[in-house]
Amino acid sequence: MRSQRRRTQTILSVGLVTAGLGLHLSLGQYKAHAGPPADAPRGREGAAVDSSTKSSLVNPLTLDGVEDGVFPDAAKAALNGPGGIVPSLARVGEASTGVEVKINGFPVDSLGQLKFADSEPFAADYQSIAPIHPYFLNPGENRLHIGSGESGAIAIVSWDYVQGAQHKELLRVSLPAKGEHNFSWAAKLPKRRWATGVHIAANEATKRGLYAEVAGLYSKLQALSAAAAKQEPTADDTTALKKELMKSVGDFVEASKLRGKPYRLIDQILEAATVRALPGKPAGSLKLQPLATAEELELETFAGGTLARLKPASGAPLFTFVSSLPDGPRGQTGTPQLAFDAWYRQNDKDAWELDALFPRLAPGTWTNFEQGPYKLEDLFRLSNF
Q1: SS3 (DSSP) at 169
Q2: H or E element: which one contains 222?
Q3: What pLDDT score does 224 carry?
Q4: Is 290 helix (H, G, I), strand (E, B) or coil?
Q5: Tens digits of per-residue pLDDT, 327-367?
């Protein structure tokens, strides 16, 4: 297969983490115990790219102009849509530990990290490159914040990874430079609600109010699971909750679609709650873990102070469905199978509104923060949000 000629590897990760970039991320890191998706292809390890090689305008998808056709038409349509090319964050030069990077107040998240190998098919001095989730970006000016880092550089790259039509750097900052740096995203989109939202006070009263909202969402999911366990009808309640959630997190869903992929997490959560299983598993094999008490959780504000979430001190997800099957490491039960965080905003009346459900572990998404070995097309096939 022509795709076997590629030696680009990917690391797919969830949670607000870009582990392979060596970035310190304040929203917390979660290492799942689940294995890779069953359909995850395997490839070979490759040598690291020569860091002295400068980036060149090479089609990143093809060799000698050959089209492999591995990307869905929806991805091409997304790049030709109002969002255009979504910028990526690249690490340049030797590995650097303790690098702290934020985009518009969001600790950087990746839809999948690409690690270059053998300088093929993309001749670059990048150690890795990670598409930035479109939700973290503003149309027009954006802020790259570098808080720490000792060597190498951080670059913002406009990279057409579907059609290979464009590749250019929007910004490159050599470490140990710190502070704010600006770059532009040429998108024809309205600003997201977080960009113009109410500033959230980080205090105990905020934490108590937010916990009540989180507990309300947990109770709704728990009620669906309890009704399903008793074999009581849940269709109407499930439909109503899906409608409520989709309306509230619509901004995040629309931003996710700018990659040309559907946002599936809400359907997966509701299936886990009502069937209490994931596809291909026996009904009743999943259980929603108890919600931690308010005292066990920390309040965190981000996105410049307009979004908030509660999190365990460990950085683990707030909501987790675990398996009763012996499908964990060495046949362990109780392993996480679906996990996510809930982000909230406040309206101009200081009432809480659910802003996003962010997947930390989900079917079809690689989450172990380990090197691939995957190819470029798996960035689309395995990342589902």
Answers
A1: strand
A2: helix 204-229
A3: 96
A4: coil
A5: 777 878 889 999 999 999 999 999 999 999 988 888 766 54
Q: What is the CA radius of gyration of the chain?
A: 21
Is the pLDDT assigned to residue 65 strictly greater than 60?
no
DSSP 225: H
Tally the residues of the chain. Answer: 385
- Rounded Cα distance, 99 and 148, in Å: 5
Identify whether the C-beta of residue 148 lies closer than 8 Å to the C-beta of residue 104: no
d(CA 37, CA 39): 5
Indicate the pTM of the whole model.
0.80
Classified as helix, coil or strand, 297 is strand
How would you classify residue 2: left for phi > 0, otherwise alpha for psi between -120 and 50, otherwise beta?
alpha
Tell me which amino acid residue 316 is.
Answer: A
Q: At what angle do helices 265-274 and 235-248 cross, to 10 degrees?
A: 150
Structure tokens at 30: 């979660």
CB atoms within 10 A of CB 338: 26
Domain extent listing, the chain:
2-190+366-381, 195-361
CA 254 – CA 90 distance, rounded (Å): 25
